[in-house]
Amino acid sequence: MPPRLDPADMKVIQLYATGGEVDASDLSPEIDPSDDSISLPTNHVNGTTSNRVNGTTSNRVNGTTSSHVNGTTNRVNGTMSSASLSSASELTASISLASEFTAPDLPFPPLWPGGSLLLAWQLRAKRVLLIGGGAVAAGRLTNVLEADALVSLVSPANGLCAEVEYRIFHDPWARNRITYYDRAWFGEHDLDLDGGIDMVLSAVDDAAVSREVCQAARRRKIPVNVADVPPECDFYFGSQIRDGPLQVLVSTGGKGPKIANIVRRKIEVNLPRNCGQAIERVGELRRRLRVRAPGVGGEMGRRRMQWMVEVCDRWELEDLAQLEDADMDRLLDEGWEKGHVLSPEDVGKKTAANEEVKSFVGELSWNREGLASVLGATLGAAIVALVVFATKARTSK
Ligand SMILES: C[C@@]1(CC(=O)O)c2cc3[nH]c(cc4nc(cc5[nH]c(cc(n2)[C@H]1CCC(=O)O)[C@@](C)(CC(=O)O)[C@@H]5CCC(=O)O)C(CC(=O)O)=C4CCC(=O)O)c(CCC(=O)O)c3CC(=O)O
Ligand SMILES: NC(=O)C1=CN([C@@H]2O[C@H](COP(=O)(O)OP(=O)(O)OC[C@H]3O[C@@H](n4cnc5c(N)ncnc54)[C@H](O)[C@@H]3O)[C@@H](O)[C@H]2O)C=CC1
Questions:
Q1: Residue 252 gets which letter from DSSP?
Q2: Which ligand has its closest atom nearest to the C-alpha of 201?
């Protein structure tokens, strides 16, 4: 059990929050006794390391923001809820930080080395060499084919698993993108296959072969991943979510792949419905806007971005998901052209928020009716009782 942090100690620590307010629940520190600073994880669900819209480390529209919140020595990126020192007692800390340590008043948040560079690698029309045809290779194949890569696959046919075999020979989309070699890895020469290789993935059950593959790729400076052998990886795979254009990758930097899987599933169930569809529609709106207002950068670029930010802020994701082409025309004709942003109601859409209010009011009115009939019945029964009582009283006189 790590030491509990006394709220009274909170004054000696300083928090660098680079976006929004901070909630104690977001501040669960990592436990690392060898570290001489506290390390706080980012808010995985709401946080982004670079948020252009709501102001974190890099915000293209509103400029760079960086706010200092007194609390603890750390940088937290992301959108967070309210700060409260009272809940600091909830915090457990792994601080070998001297209790009287005071963070210097740095002009910018301190850097947090030791991470991976997370990117969205564009593999379209690039060639990936995949060595191996088992279960792990099947997962790798899915990942790179979904990124529109071309694949050269080297693996003896007698070792192919059913999924890899299906992709190579039957899958109507994949089979045209895979060039298959029914044999074992030859050596460095394989890096010249099909006009040259841009990325190498090894998923074989033979450590000596993997090592050779890794060394050959590194000699040629081609990025390589050897499944399960971190020192032989230039990049790691992560646990992924896919919903149309939305992709989320959870990485633990090799520390806990199963934890990556668990965190990914937690994120998955919390994602808004129709997120992928909303992004598709926003993509179409942005495309149409660029047709009307072409060009890169400058005053027009700034106006365009500001307008898109406002549309995304003003519309619920669920409403964006319902945006039809005609709605986009109205948004552009009556909004963009006149320098403002129409609401979903302005273009005659029911908003998700309104629908929620309506269904709540609907429930209330149902309850009112229910209540009225109960009251009515009670009142009726009371009158009947009164009449009976009065009649009895009269007859007993
Ligand atoms: C470094 C990395 C290199 C790479 O392969 O890219 C790597 C390395 C190793 N994995 C090992 C084991 C397991 N890997 C998984 C699962 C996944 N492993 C993945 C990635 C990565 N694994 C990269 C780091 C990613 C990160 O840290 O975030 C995922 C996320 C993505 C994917 O592979 O597609 C996928 C989940 C996909 C999903 O659920 O969505 C499970 C869980 C299970 O099988 O249920 C276990 C057993 C439990 C455990 O050990 O934690 C071992 C020990 C082998 C041994 O002990 O013999 C090593 C080697 C070592 O640690 O030294
Ligand atoms: N990162 C991860 O999530 C995981 C990684 N692994 C590792 O990935 C590797 C592969 O695992 P599996 O797919 O389950 O193994 P597997 O045994 O099902 O498949 C191995 C494949 O490699 C092929 N192969 C063997 N020697 C070859 C050579 N010299 N040239 C070309 N192909 C060759 C075999 O024909 C077979 O298709 C193992 O080393 C395993 O430890 C395993 C599980 C999870």
A1: -
A2: 1
Rounded CA-CA distance 67/21 in Å is: 9
pTM of the model: 0.74
Same domain membership, residue 217 and residue 139: yes
Report whether residue 154 contacts ligand 2, using a CB cutoff of 6 Å: yes
Residues 7 and 100 in one domain: yes
* Number of structural domains the chain divides into: 4
Which two tokens mark 258?
Answer: 């199963």
Q: What is the DSSP string of 11-31?
A: GG-EEEE-SS---GGGG--B-
Q: Which of 115, 140, 159 is the last residue of a domain?
A: 115
Residue 101 belongs to some domain of the structure:
yes
120 has a pLDDT exceeding 80:
yes
**Does residue 249 contact residue 238 with C-beta atoms inside 8 Å?**
yes
Same domain for 73 and 17, yes or no, is yes
> Which is the catalytic residue, given 35, 206, 228, 234?
228
Q: What is the mean pLDDT of residues 79-96?
A: 33
User: Residue 382: what pLDDT?
Assistant: 52
- Does residue 321 fall inside a structural domain? yes
Query: Which-ligand-closest: CA of 184?
Result: 2
Mutate which of 153, 185, 204 for ligand 2? The one with the most ligand atoms within 8 Å of its CB, which is 204
- Domain extent at residue 88: 1-115
- Of 131, 234, 236, the residue with max ligand 1 atoms within 8 A of its CB, to mutate for a pocket test, comes to 236
Q: Let me know whether 102 and 8 are in one domain.
A: yes
